[in-house]
Amino acid sequence: MIVSPSILNADYLNLERDIKQLERAGADAIHIDIMDGRFVQNITWGPPTVSAIRKVTNLPLEVHLMIDKPEYNIKHYLEAGADIIIIHQESTIFLRKNLQAIKQAKVQAGVALKLETPVETIVHCLDLIDVVLLITCDEGFGGQVFHPQALYKISQIVKLREMRHLNFSIEVDGGIGIETGKQCKEAGAGRLVAGSFVFNHRKKNEAIQALKSL
Ligand SMILES: O=C(CO)[C@@H](O)[C@H](O)COP(=O)(O)O
Ligand SMILES: [Co+2]
Hints:
Elements: E1 2-5, H1 15-24, E2 30-35, H2 47-56, E3 61-66, H3 74-79, E4 84-88, H4 95-104, E5 108-113, E6 131-135, H5 149-163, E7 169-173, H6 178-187, E8 191-194, H7 196-199, H8 204-212
Parallel strand pairs: 1-8, 2-3, 3-4, 4-5, 5-6, 6-7, 7-8
The chain binds 5-O-phosphono-D-xylulose (5SP) and cobalt (II) ion.
5-O-phosphono-D-xylulose binds near residues 31, 139 and 193.
């Protein structure tokens, strides 16, 4: 299992320290939630922070863009050094065009779906997608409850992947801990994002290793 801790629950005045801890604890990537206060209520960071993080870690940076009209901003996150850029299906009418822009830069492209958004809404783009990110909570904040209705969506996307002979990854994000991570794995997820579970744990390495070995 690939584990990508979210730094939404990190100490923002000590991001470098927390990221180094995640590195030592065996994180496979760093998940960075970008929120603009419009697409979601919360506001976090922008390209300068991603660029600063790029300088202190070699771990892949997975940038989850929770912003309206990402077409205006994708190039800034490419320049900032993102390795995976995930855009929301609900945030743009130019989904294919945006994914193409990411792929052209030789960066992995992902699409995220809010809990209520059906998987059918991305079937026309599956050929361009490296990662499908299924949001498993009410997006925008860390530490929220996992919604089991997302498990059905995982199995639906697994079926679509088989039918189309594709090999994109399926990642889940929101309320992931041991039990929910296990359920998602059984449904077919191969990547887990975990924020509060890792940051609230006394030992980040134990939390990450427990998720990795699910
Ligand atoms: O995208 C988001 C929230 O919208 C996440 O990446 C959260 O940071 C996950 O946090 P936990 O639910 O694991 O605490
Ligand atoms: Co996220």
